[in-house]
Amino acid sequence: MFSGVYTALVTPFSRGKLDESALKKLVELQVKGGVDGIVPVGTTGESPTVEFEEHIRIIELVVHYAKGRCKVIAGTGANSTEEAVYLTKSAEYAGADGSLQVSPYYNKPSQDGLYAHFSEIANSTNLPIVLYSIPGRCNVEIAVSTVARLAGDCPNIVCIKEAGGDADRVSQLRAGLPKKFSILSGDDALTLPFMSVGAQGVISVASNLLPKQLTKMVHSYLKGDQRGALKLHEKYYPLFKDLFIETNPVPVKSALAMKGLVKEEYRLPLVKLNPDNRRQLRATLKASGVIK
Predict the structure, then answer these.
(1) pTM value?
(2) Are strands 4-8 and 157-162 parallel, antiparallel or unpaired?
(3) What is the Cα–Cα distance from 153 to 147, expressed in whole angstroms?
(4) Domains with residue ranges and CATH for the chain
(5) Res. 121: pLDDT tops 90
């Protein structure tokens, strides 16, 4: 079962190419921060604009840099089932510990189509699979009944990243799924609300900046220290919100650049923060103690 904090890692670029030295530093920062795992090449890792072989290279490098010190759940989803299967097999060969499978975007499949897509991927690999429901980006939600059907029919589909923003849906998932099936929040600001109704952790954007603090927050809650977890949530809640002041991963990459950890470089159609939002984010980072 997946539980705890898994960092949705950014993909650093330099002059249009993957910045491998910066990637190594980011992985090391996460490991030293005590996170339970790293999720490369997901939404935060700009997966839509990395090249095919580059996608696999990022996974290979993160596995290599992590050296078994935390889990690596590789983002290998796609809106083409064949492509997702290929990427997932490649991640398994590279030594990943799991696969994150986003809902197929743009082609908007039916629930039967979603079932066929995810079951085809599950049957192609031995990796544990984390479903990823994010209707705000994909325009399709993995229905609770479809998740339950997949969990019953595919033993290696073991978790869902829930990014629909609805704690009631988490309650529905928890009621309809086996206890061993994990639910992870897909939104830092909703981690504790989701955990209060049955989630076991988060795939986090904010932990790119605060791996130690997010790990402490989530593990405090898991150990029964709700007051301690809430104190950390309240402290960093303004940052959780401002990391989505524009489309993810633009704000978090901007924040990492302010800390000198990456170059503030994106791939089109993503562009830098507008000046007003940059000023607000910088102020929040200072207030949160992330930068001076």
Answers:
(1) 0.97
(2) unpaired
(3) 10
(4) 4-225 (3.20.20.70)
(5) yes
